């Protein structure tokens, strides 16, 4: 009778190689960002690295309705992302031109070192490095105003699974988990933006396309937390920042709002979702969960097949 054991060992070896390869991601170092546009309009993400950090995605790209884009960043990368709206780059040639209704960065698709024109909702990151105790830091900031809702959801850590179907940033603050929780803003703050802070569309004066920070609207050190207000004791939440906080309890509403705004996680994989309101549990949320369970299945498969391979090899040599 033919001995089939060497043959099955080879088949298993191939299976294991496939399992290991299929779960391989090029981002074992650094981090992975997935941008998802759940808005009913095109968003042009802008990306600004902090000083000394490499640019990502040339600083900007177009993300159509329902589109998703994933890319990697190096260890310890830090910087900010935002969503530009109402862009048309065809007519903009001079350095001072403006191409987007909100979040413009010098009139160009690729922001190359220029930040967002306020008001703009910002997603801010400092990825893990040995200096940060291997923790990722992230937050959504309305300190420079608000244009569209953005949520940040970590997806690379097993403990984040319970948040993936629960993108409800309006839940009570006490229930927010700042360890791997979802940061950001679900509410459309443009709908309840005080009149004196409203940014109106050039083409339609009845449409609010952004909500300025009180600092930008009134240019006072009290609202900007500058001068004698440049510390957390003198610069406190204002009636305006409280409106922002009420709409977006998981986002920075003013400069010293750290206690309820900064999130940490380890795992370095993040979804940045524009307009998470339409992120229903069956589509976006479900997909995050699918990803996590996919990873668990691959993990389980790897362990199982390595175990059986060892078993087959041992049984060959023990005969
Ligand atoms: C974009 O701008 C160009 C030049 O100003 C104009 O001709 C064109 O119609 C605009 N496109 C859209 C979609 O508004
Ligand atoms: C933030 O929390 C720390 C420690 O829990 C506390 O000392 C500080 O006063 C808080 N800051 C604000 C602005 O609430």
From TrEMBL:
<feature type="signal peptide">
    <location>
        <begin position="1"/>
        <end position="30"/>
    </location>
</feature>
<feature type="disulfide bond">
    <location>
        <begin position="193"/>
        <end position="211"/>
    </location>
</feature>
<feature type="transmembrane region" description="Helical">
    <location>
        <begin position="298"/>
        <end position="317"/>
    </location>
</feature>
<keyword id="KW-0472">Membrane</keyword>
<feature type="disulfide bond">
    <location>
        <begin position="39"/>
        <end position="275"/>
    </location>
</feature>
<feature type="disulfide bond">
    <location>
        <begin position="215"/>
        <end position="224"/>
    </location>
</feature>
<comment type="similarity">
    <text>Belongs to the thaumatin family.</text>
</comment>
<protein>
    <recommendedName>
        <fullName>Thaumatin-like protein</fullName>
    </recommendedName>
</protein>
<dbReference type="Pfam" id="PF00314">
    <property type="entry name" value="Thaumatin"/>
</dbReference>
<keyword id="KW-1133">Transmembrane helix</keyword>
<keyword id="KW-0732">Signal</keyword>
<feature type="disulfide bond">
    <location>
        <begin position="225"/>
        <end position="235"/>
    </location>
</feature>
<keyword id="KW-0812">Transmembrane</keyword>
<keyword id="KW-1015">Disulfide bond</keyword>
<feature type="disulfide bond">
    <location>
        <begin position="185"/>
        <end position="248"/>
    </location>
</feature>
<dbReference type="InterPro" id="IPR037176">
    <property type="entry name" value="Osmotin/thaumatin-like_sf"/>
</dbReference>
<feature type="disulfide bond">
    <location>
        <begin position="105"/>
        <end position="111"/>
    </location>
</feature>
<feature type="disulfide bond">
    <location>
        <begin position="87"/>
        <end position="100"/>
    </location>
</feature>
<feature type="disulfide bond">
    <location>
        <begin position="180"/>
        <end position="265"/>
    </location>
</feature>
<dbReference type="InterPro" id="IPR001938">
    <property type="entry name" value="Thaumatin"/>
</dbReference>
């Amino acid at each position: 009778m033919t001995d089939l054991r060497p043959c099955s060992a080879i088949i298993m070896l191939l299976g294991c190689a496939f399992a290991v390869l299929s779960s391989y991601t090029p981002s074992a170092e650094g981090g992975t960002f997935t941008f998802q546009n759940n808005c009913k309009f095109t968003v042009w993400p802008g990306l600004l690295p902090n000083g000394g950090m490499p640019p990502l995605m040339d600083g900007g790209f177009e993300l159509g309705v329902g589109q998703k884009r994933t890319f990697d960043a190096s260890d310890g990368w830090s910087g900010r992302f935002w969503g530009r709206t109402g862009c048309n780059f065809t007519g903009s040639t001079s350095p001072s031109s403006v191409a987007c209704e909100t979040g413009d960065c010098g009139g160009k698709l690729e922001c190359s070192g220029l930040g967002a024109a306020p008001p703009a909702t910002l997603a801010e990151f400092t990825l893990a490095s040995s200096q940060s105790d291997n923790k990722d830091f992230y937050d959504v900031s309305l300190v420079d105003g608000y244009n569209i809702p953005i949520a940040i959801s970590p997806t690379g850590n097993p403990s984040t699974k319970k948040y993936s179907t629960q993108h409800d940033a309006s839940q009570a603050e006490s229930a927010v988990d700042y360890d791997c929780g979802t940061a950001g803003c679900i509410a459309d703050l443009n709908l309840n933006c005080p009149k004196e802070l409203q940014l109106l569309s050039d083409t339609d004066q009845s449409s609010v396309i952004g909500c300025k920070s009180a600092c930008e609207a009134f240019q006072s050190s009290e609202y900007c937390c500058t001068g004698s207000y440049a510390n957390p004791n003198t610069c406190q939440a204002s009636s305006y920042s409280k409106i922002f906080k009420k709409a977006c309890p998981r986002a920075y509403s003013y400069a010293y709002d750290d206690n309820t705004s900064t999130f940490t996680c380890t795992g370095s994989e993040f979804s940045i979702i524009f307009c998470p309101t339409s992120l229903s549990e069956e589509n976006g949320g479900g997909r995050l969960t699918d990803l996590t369970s996919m990873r668990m299945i691959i993990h389980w498969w790897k362990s199982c097949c390595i175990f059986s391979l060892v078993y087959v090899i041992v049984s060959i040599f023990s005969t």
